[in-house]
């Protein structure tokens, strides 16, 4: 699964977010909820979703990641970013406090 994540991260870095989302989705589907890496896959996919302005999907991924691992910093940052892009700055800031 880590190889898939690395491929997805590389694709995101090249602004190939649709392809990255496909890789993250494959990694997520192959992971159990108890997997410690699953929240990272979800948060990384959320960042790509945000880049494509799929904000509600990104928020859903972040929420799931935060339930699975409340200390997953990248999920909190992506969640806040998605709310900020939706113009909900108060909610975005609340998530980071």
The structural class is mainly alpha
What name does CATH use for the topology? Serine Threonine Protein Phosphatase 5, Tetratricopeptide repeat
Number of domain units: 1
> Level of helix content?
over 70%
The CATH superfamily is identified as Tetratricopeptide repeat domain
Q: Which residue ranges are poorly predicted, with pLDDT under 50 across at least 5 consecutive positions?
A: none
Beta percentage is under 5%
Please report the number of helical segments.
6
User: What string, H for helix and E for strand, traces the elements in order?
Assistant: HHHHHH
**Number of distinct beta strands:** 0
Description:
With 97 residues, the protein is mainly α. It has one domain: Alpha Horseshoe (Serine Threonine Protein Phosphatase 5, Tetratricopeptide repeat), CATH 1.25.40.10. The chain is 76% helix and 0% strand. It has six helices and no strands. It has helices at 2-13, 17-29, 38-51, 55-68, 73-85, 89-96. Helix 1 (2-13) packs antiparallel against helix 2, helix 3 (38-51) runs antiparallel to helix 4 and helix 4 runs antiparallel to helix 5. The mean pLDDT is 95.
Keywords:
97 residues; mainly alpha; Serine Threonine Protein Phosphatase 5, Tetratricopeptide repeat; 76% helix
Topology:
Layout: H1 2-13, H2 17-29, H3 38-51, H4 55-68, H5 73-85, H6 89-96
Helix pairs in contact: 1-2, 2-3, 3-4, 3-5, 4-5, 5-6
């Amino acid at each position: 699964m880590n190889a898939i994540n690395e491929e997805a991260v590389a694709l995101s870095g090249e602004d190939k977010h649709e392809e990255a989302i496909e890789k993250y989705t494959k990694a997520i589907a192959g992971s159990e909820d108890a997997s410690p890496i699953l929240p990272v896959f979800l948060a990384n996919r959320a960042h790509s979703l945000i880049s494509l302005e799929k904000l509600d999907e990104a928020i859903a991924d972040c929420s799931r990641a935060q339930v699975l691992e409340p200390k997953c910093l990248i999920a909190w940052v992506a969640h806040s970013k998605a709310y900020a892009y939706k113009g909900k700055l108060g909610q975005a800031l609340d998530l980071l406090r």
